[in-house]
Amino acid sequence: MTVSKVIARALSSASQSKVKLSWLDLRGSGLSVLERLTLEEALLRHDPLKRCWGIIGSHDPYHNKIISLHGGTHGDDYVSPLVHNTNCAVVMGIGGHPKKLLDIDTTKSDGVLVLKRFSGGGTVVVDHSSLWTTFICRTDALPHVKPYPRDIMKWSADAVFEPTFQLLNEEIKSQNQDVNVETPDFALKDNDYVFGDMKFGGNAQAIIGDGWLHHTSFLWDYVDGHMDYLLLPEKRPEYRGQR
Q1: Domains of the chain
Q2: Contacts of 240 (CB under 8 A, 6+ apart)
Q3: First vs last C-alpha separation in the chain
Q4: Pairwise CA distance, residues 215 & 132, whole Å
Q5: Which SUPFAM superfamilies does the entry link to (predicted)?
Q6: What is the pLDDT along the chain (243 residues), one digit of tens a residue?
Q7: Contact status, residue 117 vs residue 91, Cβ threshold 8 Å
Q8: What is the DSSP pairing of strand 192-195 with strand 186-189?
Q9: How far is CA 110 from CA 34, 52, 84, 93, in A?
Q10: Fewer Cβ atoms within 10 Å of its own Cβ: the N or the C terminal residue of the chain?
């Protein structure tokens, strides 16, 4: 069974009545981080059919496939940022303050693209190894899920990601029967997705009048040096310590 079918089945079984989910697989699409965020906000706010969406994909941190920000033919004053490190991007929540969250000097000297997304949440570094998942739901389609960040996160953990990772663990063990493979259990701790005590994904929500969006960037791999662009948040769960 494919990952998309696992998540779609989990979403439907989580609701009190069957939810019709439109699935969008953007892996291999060539869309950039900026284009992914733009598409998500458009589907949340402007989908004329008010559909529920499940979206998955990995994206180029810098190079856009469709969006052009130069706008030379329109005579605007946009100036493209001078970016040296195109291998990652820093994405901040809508309320984030760069001086509190970023090593400004390192970020500027390396020429890293910094974006602010339309959702809340913290700051993440994303690259080609980041896997993005997004759920866009309408409040009347999932009336038992209250449109608040903690309720949405609990639903996503219980109904979607816990059964998904359980199935993936079973697949791993079935393919390695001759080896004793121990995989840590998935859990929601505070506001984090964790394996054991290790956070492995960043989450954020956007909530509007008739629906909400919950998106996650999973770190399947990362470059240590890219994490130097981030400062330790002033507020963080106790279990993380200095992480």
Answers
A1: 3-65+118-223 (3.30.930.10)
A2: 192, 199
A3: 35
A4: 7
A5: Class II aaRS and biotin synthetases (SSF55681)
A6: 555 555 555 544 544 446 788 999 999 999 999 999 999 999 999 999 999 999 999 999 999 999 987 654 555 555 566 678 899 999 999 999 999 999 999 999 999 999 999 999 999 999 999 999 999 999 999 999 999 999 999 999 998 888 888 887 777 777 777 767 677 789 998 888 998 888 888 899 999 999 999 999 998 888 889 999 999 776 654 545 444
A7: yes
A8: antiparallel
A9: 19, 39, 6, 21
A10: N
CA 114 vs CA 3, 131, 197, 212: distances in Å: 30, 19, 28, 24
Q: What is the pTM of this model?
A: 0.85
Rounded CA gap, 133 and 55, in Å? 6
Listed in order, strand segments (DSSP E) in the chain are 21-25, 52-57, 85-92, 112-116, 124-127, 130-138, 186-189, 192-195, 198-208, 211-219
Asked if 87 contacts 128 with a C-beta cutoff of 8 angstroms, the reply is: yes
Under a CB-based contact definition with an 8 Å cutoff, are residues 216 and 132 in contact?
A: yes
Phi, psi angle pair for 205, to nearest 5°: -130, 150
User: Tokens standing for 4?
Assistant: 């998309």
CA 205-168-200 angle, to 5 degrees, is: 40
**Helix axes of 162-175 and 3-14: crossing angle, nearest 10 degrees:** 140
